[in-house]
Amino acid sequence: MANVIRIKRRVSGTSGAPAALKSAELGHNEVDDTRYVGKGDDGGGNATSVIALAGKGAFVDRSSAQTVGGKKTFSAVRKSQFDAGLAVKAAASHGHAIAEITSLQTTLDAKAPLASPALTGVPTAPTAAGGTSSTQIATWVPATIWDGWVSHVVEDHSQMGHTLGGLQHRIELSAVYRDRLEHELGRGEQSQRFQDRRLQ
């Protein structure tokens, strides 16, 4: 008849090592899948410590998913294994096609192009300083002053009636206000802009 060798085991309850084992005695905890052995001898056959000997509860398992804690130092790593691991990793600095980045193309399509943008809503721009003569984009606040003066001219004309003398007076006032605006701006080149704005 074959001999059957058994070791102590715990099938349920608490994980971890047994409280005590005999010297060289084995114990298996099925709760955390760890095998323990009694180490040392106190002189009475009892182990002086119980240490983990085997089992995926205490050692790295080659197939199942595990969380490995603590600092590990390896004395040697095969270069071929190391190179194989690096081969499937992206470089710290690398590029991507637009299509590879989620929603990037959609985000770019929502932006105005640099060439001939068709803006909507109420776009704003800086107001150029007096004397500026460049190709910068800027609003022209003094235009509101000109519009106000023209409004006064029109009002004066409406009060005088549609007569030839009233029309002549309106033209003269328009020229006066235009000259005053040119003087305020200090920019002689602006006069050309106002030539087409004389009231007919």
Descriptive report:
With 200 residues, this protein is of the alpha+beta class. Among the domains are: 8-54, no CATH class; 143-195. Helices cover 30% and strands 10% of the residues. The chain has helices at 79-87, 104-109, 143-160, 164-185, 191-195, and strands spanning 8-10, 26-29, 34-39, 49-54. Strand 2 (26-29) and strand 3 form a beta hairpin. Helix 3 packs antiparallel against helix 4. It is rod-shaped, with a radius of gyration of 46 Å.
Provide key terms for this protein.
4-stranded mixed β-sheet, rod-shaped, alpha+beta
The sequence of SSEs as H and E is EEEEHHHHH
Strand line-up across the major sheet = 1-2-3-4
Shape: rod-shaped
Radius of gyration from the alpha-carbon trace, in angstroms:
46 Å
List unreliable stretches of 5+ residues.
188-196
Structural class: alpha+beta
Please work out how many helical segments DSSP would assign.
Answer: 5
The biggest beta sheet reads: 4 strands, mixed
Distance between the termini: 127 Å
Approximate strand percentage: 5-15%
Helical proportion, percent range: 25-40%
Mean pLDDT: 76
Number of strands: 4
Short structural description:
The chain is an alpha+beta fold. The protein has helices at residues 79-87, 104-109, 143-160, 164-185, 191-195; strands spanning 8-10, 26-29, 34-39, 49-54.
List the helices and strands and how they pair.
Layout: E1 8-10, E2 26-29, E3 34-39, E4 49-54, H1 79-87, H2 104-109, H3 143-160, H4 164-185, H5 191-195
Parallel strand pairs: 1-2
Antiparallel strand pairs: 2-3, 3-4
